[in-house]
Amino acid sequence: MLATAGSAIGLGNIWKLPYMIGVNGGSAFVIIFIASIIFLAIPLMMTEIMLGRRGQKNPLDAMKSLAKEANVSSLWSWVGGMGMLAGVLILSFYSVVGGWVLSYVLSAVQGVFSNISAEQAANNFNNLLAQPLTLLMWHSIFLLMTMVIVARGVSEGLEKANNILIPLLFAILLVLLGYSMSVGDMSAAFTFMFSPDFSKVTSVAILSALGHAFFTLSLGMGAVMVYGSYLGKNESIGQTTLFIAILDTALGLLTGLAIYALVFANQLEPGAGPGLIFQTLPIALGSMPAGNLFATLFFVLVGFAAWTSSISLIEPAVAWVIENTKLSRIMASIILGLTVWLIGVSVVLSFNEWQDIKIAFGLGIFDSLDKLTSTVMLPLGGLLMAIFAGYLMKKQHIAEELGLHGWAFTFWKVTNTIIAPVAVIIVFLNLLGVFEKLF
Ligand code: PFF
User: What is the pLDDT of residues 366-385, one digit of tens each?
Assistant: First the structure.
């Protein structure tokens, strides 16, 4: 359970959710996001943990043996295969952003944020992005930190550290929130995030909110499946899932409130994009009493949360390679690490030298990788897992694993057989413009 929480809690909560809220118009996005967590992500997380615990292998081979047990085509194993690919692609930009966090740890130690103005904070971040070699160095360090742990197969120690570090991150966020409340405009932040404005609901916002529900809980790519395979037979899948989902969502939303209180008090742009936390939080951190110490602690904890998530992004692929080839864990980690590093180089360059290169739909390299994984691969992976568990697995096997009864089982069944498939398919079709053509 700690490992799964470590995978779920990461940059998705502190970095991504806050800026996605701003880019997608505020409350409309938040409401769809929360609904996606309740009606899609929670039931699908139970499914993914269950598939992992029953499959007992890496995602691809776990799906293969489950398909055999259910007497259906072994092509289902490719759900696991697609997930592993998604993990490699996500890590290639996740590691670059993890690198930003590490560079902010150094800035905090050096006292760069002391009494920083909003303009200076924005300039600092933009200067960082403009330096490919610096970004590359931090990306390399972050990825190396990840791959060393994966290569040695010793993530257990890190996960134990979660026991202390996640509550500490939570506590520090609460202090930050309190401080933002006193220097920032909390009521504007609250209105922006929670007062419903459905005029802003676009199909892109819906797909992004749904995609982020998968991203933040690490769903649809087999990470949770791998950890599910380690979960003891007597642990309750339902309780584990609920606990992690509530903690994870609360962390993200609290960070959002702390940030938007600062955004509105300093006349900043809510839709600033991926740099949002790096441009706003230093303002509060730099003006607090004992600010440098606090800022250092904050970025160290965010870096730690990112580290445990990044391990889970690459572990499924590493597990598959060592279970299916003659390569050792160390060799598998080196080869996959280099692959991720190389793709990451193109992500680094997309913030400066290659800024004008567009790949698909007018999106740059970073955005294309992010959108392809979060809004296509993860929801598709989740959809296929839901269909597999909801329609193809034997009811008795599901009941054995999930241990849900009464309304809870009905909720799981309805969400996996009807709500999840219908919602994901409608959103996909809508995005493809199929609906406009039909009506
Ligand atoms: N859930 C992680 C976060 O919110 O930062 C990101 C992530 C980790 C996504 C592992 C997917 C995954 F398999």
Answer: 999 999 999 899 999 999 99
> Could you tell me where the beta strands, DSSP code E, fall in 189-279?
none
Give the per-residue pLDDT at 294: 87
How many angstroms is it from 221 CA to the middle of ligand 1?
A: 9
Residue in 20, 84, 95, 218 to alter for ligand 1 test, most ligand atoms within 8 A of Cβ: 218
Q: Whose CA is closest to atom 7 on ligand 1?
A: 218
pLDDT in tens, 162-197: 888 888 988 999 998 998 888 899 999 999 999 987
**Ligand 1 centre from 115 Cα, in Å?**
33
**Structure confidence by residue, pLDDT tens digits, 88-116:** 999 999 999 999 999 999 999 999 999 99
Local structure of 312: helix, strand or coil: helix
3-class secondary-structure state, position 394:
coil
Topology annotation, domain 2-438: Hydantoin permease (1.10.4160)
Report residue 269 as tokens: 């742009």
Question: Does ligand 1 have an atom closer than 6 angstroms to the CB of 312?
Answer: yes
Neighbours of 399 (CB within 10 A): 12
Helix (H, G, I), strand (E, B) or coil at 111: coil
User: Which of 11, 309, 369 maximizes ligand 1 atoms within 8 Å of its Cβ, making it the mutation to test the pocket?
Assistant: 309
Nearest CA-CA partner of 20 in 6, 4, 36: 36
